[in-house]
Specification:
The protein has two helices and two strands. With 79 residues, it is an alpha+beta fold. The chain starts with 18 loop residues before the first helix and ends in a 17-residue tail after the last strand.
Length: 79
């Protein structure tokens, strides 16, 4: 598939790859999901809301003060 006709190389926010190429980019998908989870957890902590997790075959609630402020794992850099 060709890039869309309005795709400009000088626009970094615009992904000029075809949908099939974007779906095949598993590293990018994993990065974006991880980033979204980190942002959601940070938002819950700031708002004082607990989060639910699946642990020991049941749902457990993590209080907002136990949600880590700084996540130990750094996200990988994308190429």
């Amino acid at each position: 598939m060709a890039a869309p006709p309005d795709c400009r190389a000088m626009t970094p926010a615009l992904d000029c790859r075809s949908p099939a190429e974007r779906v095949d980019d598993l590293d990018r998908i994993q990065f974006e999901i991880s980033e979204a989870v980190r942002e959601a957890l940070a938002a819950h902590r700031r708002a004082g809301n607990p989060v639910a997790v699946w642990r020991n075959n049941r749902v457990e609630w993590i209080p907002p003060n136990e949600i880590p402020e700084d996540f130990a794992t750094e996200l990988p850099e994308l190429k």
